[in-house]
Each structure stands twice: as structure tokens, then as C-alpha cells.
Design a protein that fits this description.
The protein is of the alpha+beta class and about 280 residues long. The chain contains 11 helices and 6 strands. The chain has a 6-stranded antiparallel beta sheet with strand order 1-2-6-3-4-5, sandwiched between helices. A hairpin with a 5-residue loop joins strand 3 (about 125-135) and strand 4. It is globular and about 70 Å long. The protein starts with 16 loop residues before the first helix and ends with a helix. About 30% of the residues are buried.
Length: about 280
Amino acid sequence: MNETLDPLVIDITPHHGAMTKAGKANFVRFSDATSEFVDNSLQAYRQLGDENSARDVSLRLFMNAKKATNSLRDCFLVISDKGCGMDENALKDFATYSLDKATRKQQNEGFISKFGVGAKQSGFFLGERIRVMTSPVGVDSVFELNLDESVFEERYQNDEKVYEAYVYKREAGNISFLTPEDEKANQLMMKHIQEYETANKEHFTTIVLKLRESTVRDLYSRHRYKEIPYELAQIYHFYLNPSNRPDEILETLDFLKTNQKVKGASALYQATERLTKRK
């Protein structure tokens, strides 16, 4: 047996699909994936330190009006908030896959999202490109980050370094400087982004997702896009009112059913059972 003191060095960098395809294992509905971004926005507001300020999170779909198969292409979801924004280091944390909140020394309490993979998993579950424009408190400039599945694949095929991203710095209001051509073609979306950035240039974050054709097809199916506001309202109703969660209601049902001596228990049980349609 021949022994060697010089080990063979192998590259164990994960395939980029580990980041861009992982969301399929965790999300089913458009609204569930979107809530990850809403959660990030709520956290950005909390970091401002003003608990009494309004926490407005804007979610807008910009669909392609073209006919036939082209209608599934070049559709976008834009998420915007007026939270604390992100600097270069925060954007690096945002882009780094599987960097959990414990490693970043952030608290999980009070948020739906638990892991740093949330934005990447949900973003690539919904879309094929994630573009971030953000201006942190106390900075006059805007930072931009672009994570593009097609770029990762091209680098992989060319045997180049895949897990690398660039943060660009530009003047506030100059949104077309780094904007991809397919986004520029959507004038209504560009107008919205421009107006939002101009009105909130002190600190903001805007994320543009280029939606997958499969995502758009699902949104159009039986007018699913109309259900998203109600699903998000449901998610955050139970988030803000945990005692109203279905499992809590069903536990109450079992208590009422087995404790008939409680005054009015029988009537409450029957009413709640009808409400939850439990047989």
C-alpha cells in the first residue's frame, strides 16, 4: 500500500441549485413565499426603533399584457418598505446562503422567518432573479445587488466562480443606471419604483423579483392572484393573534367536549364546531 502525505484537494462547493431550487421543499403558495419578504420588511421597521410609526409594506404585481405565451414572461413582483435599509455589509448577509439569524446575532422573537435562507429560497421559488435596491439610514446613496439564476448557470457552465455577487453604489433617483432591459420595458413598474425611491430616499428597500413562468401561470389559473391579499391577511392575523390559530381552536373544542360542566360549554362547542366545519 502506497501512502502519500500530499492529500488530493477537491472542490465541494454546492451546486447553485442548492440555493435556487431549495424553496420547492418549503413553499407551496405564492403568499407563503411572499411572507418571507414581508417579515424582512417588518424587521427593518423594528430596527428603526420607532414602535409607533406606521409599518407600510408595498406589494405590487406587474403582469405582462401581451397575448398568448408571451403573457407569462417578463412579469414582476415589487416589494418595498421604508424601513432602516441595508448597507454593504447587510447586503452581504442578505446574499449569503444559509447565514442564519443566530450567526448574524439577530433575535428570532416576533418574526415568522427564522433563517437567513428565507429570502433566497422564497425569492427563487417565485422568480429567477432577485434585484435589491436599498438606502440605509444616514447614507445619501443607493446600493444595488442582483442575484440572477441564469448568471449562476452561465458561470457554472464556464467553470467560473459561481457564488459571487456585486454590490453597486449609485445616486438616489437614478434607477435606470443598473436596471435590466426587461425591467426597463415595463414603464408602469419603472414609474412606481422611481416615485417610491424619490419619496423615501432617506431610507428604504425595494426588491424586484422577475417571476418564473410557472409562478405566473399559477397566478392566472382560476384568478389565483385575487386570493393573495386574503391569504396574506390570514397569515398575519394568526401571526398577530396566535390564540386564534386553528390548532388552538381545535384544542378548545376538545376541552369543551370533555368538560360539559363548564357553563355554556355545550353551546360553545357546537358553535365552534360549525365555525371550523369539524365533523
